[in-house]
Amino acid sequence: MTATEIPIADKSSPDISARHDSAGVAALSIEGVNHSYGARRALIDVSFDVAPASFTALLGLNGAGKSTLFSLITRLFGIQAGRIGIFGHDISRAPGEALRLLGVVFQPRTLDLDLSVTQNLLYHAALHGIGRREARLRSGEVLARIALSDRAGSKVRDLSGGQMRRLEIARALLHRPRLLLLDEATVGLDVKARSDILNHVRKLVAEQGIGVLWATHLFDEITASDDLVVLHQGKVLARGQVSRVIAETGAQDINTAFMRLTGAVDKAGSEAS
Amino acid sequence: MSSITVTPSRRGFSFAEYLTCLNGIVWREALRFLHQRERFVSALVRPLVWLFIFAAGFRQVLGISIIPPYETYILYEVYIAPGLMAMIQLFNGMQSSLSMVYDREMGNMRTLLVSPLPRGYLLFCKLLAGTAVSLLQVYAFLVIAWLWDITPPPIGYLTVLPALVLSGLMLGALGMLISSGIKQLENFAGVMNFVIFPMFFASSALYPLWRVQEGSPMLYYVCQLNPFTHAVELIRFALYGQTNWISLAVVAGCTAVFMIGAILAYDPSRGLARRGPAGGET
After folding, report:
1. Among A78-92, A193-207, B44-58, B242-256, which is the least confidently predicted range?
2. Taking a C-beta distance cutoff of 8 angstroms, is the pair A32, A47 a contact?
3. Which residue of A30, A50, A110, A179 to mutate against B (max B Cβ within 10 Å)?
4. Do the chains contact at B28 and A115, CB–CB below 8 Å?
5. Cβ of B20 and A178 within 8 Å?
6. Which of A114, A251, B116, B219 lies at a 20 to 30 A Cα distance from B19?
7. Residue A38 lies in a domain
8. What is the pLDDT of residue B273?
9. Predicted complex ipTM
């Protein structure tokens, strides 16, 4: 199988694209995005949608381009080519409107270790223009939701890795976004903490209708009913519901499907060189 | 594609939101400063060492004639006090930029940069916060200096404030501009050697420029071109209730240039885009 023969789920299939909100807008829309670091191409013509109230897994090995894509979506990097929209707001043309609807949990920890749990939340709230009284109210709510109310005054430095991640998710939700990006949010956590965080995020999708883009390289974090985007060497190799991607590759599970997709590209690459 | 319709998201930001953001950034900077007590102590010890030890040694060697804004002969300690105030701000500006590099490496900087408020405004708030911290340090120094018999006119403590704000912004913006070009924290040692020390020594902080001119005309011109010289002179004149208009113009102009440069450098389509993702990310 060569790279061009790799099955890519039809973007107009009901798997991802058609499940938009009542106004017909995707939570996240990525169209023809390219990005290079000098001569090295990190993303090549990347396109996919994330539907509102859906859990979309962005699966790729280290070096696939996941974090670069996250940096583009969050406007840490400028878009060199293509377009990124959040609920229809172009991230380049209307960054304020777009970022207001976006919550992010980055791969590295972004909490201030020397500030307390509440102080970190209040700082984030201020960066979104949320007044002190309202921020305190919301902080209390999110801390109760992640069972960290008793640690509100503790320095973040004293929290466990799992607690820090939960706090980062709570912080990302403080300004009530409608799209949540998580970049390898469970890296470095033990099995229980990983499972807790994954369940918490899935609950957010089910109960609050938040669209989630979950970047990972761990197959066991993906279920058959999730939407899936497979990113490899900067290219989207497949997108669609997990069960459908598995079926289209003729595999039995996501692990094998991923290996077949990426193996074909790697083989084609080595033959070409 | 689904880009025809748009889910409403409030356009623009209210004045209250801008103010809340500014308060939050200043509050965080102040908290961090209070948590790092050793930073406060070292920020004070540095100029005090110059004042108590260096100045005591040099007062016999270096005579200061009557030069504006002074109306009489002054002690060397009195002469270098404004230079040491600017020195506090110089180190604070560089310290802020160091913390920006650290924040960027540690990821904290992203929290700031993904705020929906305009990025230029966020960076300006960060500069103001750094300047506010430097003001605390400078006024603490002035209290100690007063005990050491360095007593500018009482009104000087008030008139020097706008000068300190402006010079703090200029040095903070310079630090921010430098931080945008530094990829790793380790590279920051170079800033000490190539920015802080040359700026400080090639200025009027420690010796009047006419003295420099006598010794080395070339160095005199270098000092004249050094924006730090003008920050020192702006502070010196303001401390005695006067305005040095040339210094004011230079400091204001440099503040604008450095600030625009820093904002452009942190613009996603210019500065950060040239860098790859942080270590370990792809």
Report:
1. B44-58
2. yes
3. A110
4. yes
5. no
6. A114
7. no
8. 40
9. 0.80
Look at residue B210 and tell me whether its pLDDT is greater than 90: no
CA Rg value for chain A = 19
Report the C-alpha gap between A155 and B263 in whole angstroms: 32
Cβ(A225)–Cβ(A19) below 8 Å: no
A66/B282 CB distance under 8 A = yes
Instruction: Give the nearest chain B residue to A11 (CA atoms).
Output: B1
Contact A29, A84 (CB under 8 A): yes
- What proportion of chain B, given as a percentage, has pLDDT over 90? 37
The CA distance from B281 to the nearest CA of chain A, in Å, is 6
Please say if the pLDDT value at position B277 is more than 60.
no
CA distance B201 to B39: 23
pLDDT average, residue stretch B18-40? 87
Mean pLDDT over A226-246 rounds to 92
At A14 the pLDDT is: 38
Domain ranges of chain B: 36-268
Banded model confidence at residue B162, pLDDT cuts 50, 70, 90: very high
Q: What percent of chain A has pLDDT over 90?
A: 51
CATH number at residue A262: 3.40.50.300
Q: What is the mean pLDDT of residues B41-52?
A: 84
> Could you report the per-residue pLDDT of A100-135, keeping only the tens digit for each?
999 999 888 889 888 999 999 999 999 999 999 999
For A54, how many CA atoms within 13 A lie in the half-sphere containing its CB? 28
- Interface touch A87/B6, C-beta < 8 Å: yes
Phi first, then psi, for residue A185 (nearest 5°) are: -70, -15
Q: Which residue of B has its CA nearest to A234?
A: B282
Q: How far is CA B228 from the centre of its chain?
A: 10
Domain that holds residue A206: 52-75+97-272
Chain A contact present for B264, CB below 8 A? no
Q: Which residue has the tokens 């006598």?
A: B214
Rounded to a whole number of angstroms, the distance from the CA of B172 to the nearest CA of chain A is 20
Distance CA B91, CA A104 (A): 34
In a domain, A86, yes or no: no
Scan for tokens 């191409």, then name that residue.
A41
User: Do the domain assignments include residue A196?
Assistant: yes
Measured between alpha carbons, how far is B103 from A190 in angstroms, rounded to an integer?
A: 26
Distances (CA, A) of B67 to A15, B39, B218: 80, 35, 21
Residue B61: its pLDDT value, please? 64
Select the more confidently predicted residue: B166 or B42. Answer: B166
Contact A67 B113 (CB under 8 A): no
Chain B CB within 8 Å of residue A18 CB: no
**Which of A70-74, A169-173, B49-53, B64-68 bottoms out in mean pLDDT, i.e. has the lowest?**
B64-68
Q: Is B5 in contact with A25 (Cβ distance < 8 A)?
A: yes
Size of interface A-B (CB pairs under 8 A): 172
Closest-CA residue to B239 (of B126, B31, B72, B83): B83
CA dist., res. A160 & res. B3, Å (int): 41
Chain A residues with CB inside 8 Å of B3's CB? 25, 29, 31, 83, 85, 88, 90
Six-digit token string for B37: 């007590």
List all residues of chain B from 111 to 130 with a beta carbon under 8 Å from chain A: 111-118, 122
